[in-house]
TrEMBL record:
GO molecular function ontology, one term from the record: D-lactate dehydrogenase (NAD+) activity
GO biological process: lactate catabolic process
Alphabetized PANTHER family for the sequence: D-2-HYDROXYGLUTARATE DEHYDROGENASE (PTHR11748:SF119), D-LACTATE DEHYDROGENASE (PTHR11748)
Domain FAD-binding PCMH-type: 44-215
Highest taxon of the lineage: Bacteria
Protein name, as recorded: FAD-linked oxidase
Keywords, alphabetical: FAD, Flavoprotein, Oxidoreductase
Species annotation: Paenibacillus ferrarius
PROSITE patterns per UniProt: FAD_PCMH
One Pfam family this sequence matches: FAD_binding_4
Amino acid sequence: YTGWEKALKEQFSEEIVHVDDATREKLSKDYYWYSPVLNRQLEHIQAADAVLIPRNADEVARILAFGYQHHIPVTVRGAGTGNYGQAVPLQGGIVMDLSRMDEILEIGPGFARLQCGVRLSIIDKKAREAGQEIRIYPSTYVKATVGGFVSGGSGGIGSITHGNLWDGNVLEAVVYTMEETPQRLVIRGDELVNYIHNYGTTGIMTEVTIPLSPRTDWAQAIAHFDTFENSMLFGEALAREDAIPKRLVAPMEWPIPSYFVPFAKVIKAELAAVMLEFAEDSLPLVEALAARYGGCIGHYMEAKQYRKTIGVSDFTWNHTTLWAMKTDASMTYLQAGFKLDSYIEQIRELKAKFGDEVYLHFEWVRSGGAITPTALPVVRFRSEERLYEIIAFCESIGVKIFDPHTWVLDHGGRGEVGSMERKKRENDPRGLLNPGKIMVET
Ligand code: FAD
């Protein structure tokens, strides 16, 4: 890229361009170290040549035009909490950090229009003040940006009721292309599928509109069960019970709850635990349902404690894996889809084969309208070969694996990316947006 760095400094102010080693190193990494496989592959990757931190959409467009003109790759980042190495600039060039574009543009009835760099926790706080709330968010909501969630995440707290990102949880996006003169596209409806979970490969999102729901007073609780199977059956029954508003149903096999150090006093030893968030006035219904499966509500937090202190959701989704890794650095994880009609048999087969090598953690979600037992099992890492043996076994018993140990979109098990590839060719003809993350055949 000889010569372009000089041009960069001439064309953009000091406030935007950062070339010092510390900034380049820090903003060229995300949470890929979650995966021992990705850690091995990415820890020695060279940092980006420059970090650009634009303040508005015009500057985003100017940076994209600059990159196009000089053939420089541009990898965008929000808060950098993705854990597949999505935000790592594999071929150097420019990292564009969008966290400074953090304005809430409008909160209206049933929607929020946002600059891409707003943190999800801030959006939810403002929405709750206006009697509403965000529908789905990852367990990293305190730091994660809305643009990063839409472009690099999938679902989270709230997905048990509202599904994942693809289930109507993005209403509109403003996207810039990487061409000689970048276009500003306004994307709605079916077209959004080419931009959701795209790792910034098909365009750069500067604004996004998400739906809001009426605010609910959420209670938090931990339900305990003698067996993991009973905790799963309770989870399914609760997932199906439309009379109970809920946003979290997360069964965990023992010893996973023992990793939750801040909750050590309230966790019951040797029992399975289900982490719950439900409408406060549904407590009697939840207690009755738990009793039907031989369980009981242990730790309980009233709605007025919501977000005031560490909460139940801080131990769910991929935070479960984080707590496991803090206790035992040899732990890693998988992402899996079990079958609704045979998950108990699948669980039995998996446990019979791997015992203490795989501990089960599920998140009940509604995906494409259907209740689904998705899982983020915690796996003891022995070797990459062994990890892929476990994956192969899961697939042999009909458990679908969404491999979290790859940065390539096409290999993450998310299904067809053909239309995304075609869109990339249109919007990014020189293939400069986050290269290496989507395999465009030329
Ligand atoms: P980043 O990591 O900065 O970016 C993610 C991807 O999107 C990158 O490829 C980046 O290039 C691209 N990108 C960012 N902004 C834009 C933009 N404006 N336009 C185009 N592309 C863009 N994810 C979930 O879905 N659910 C969870 O529950 C969840 N739990 C997690 C728990 C832990 C402990 C960790 C470490 C991660 C978890 N994640 C989860 C992954 C991640 O935290 C979330 O997806 C988060 O929303 C990403 O937001 P971010 O701002 O950090 O994005």
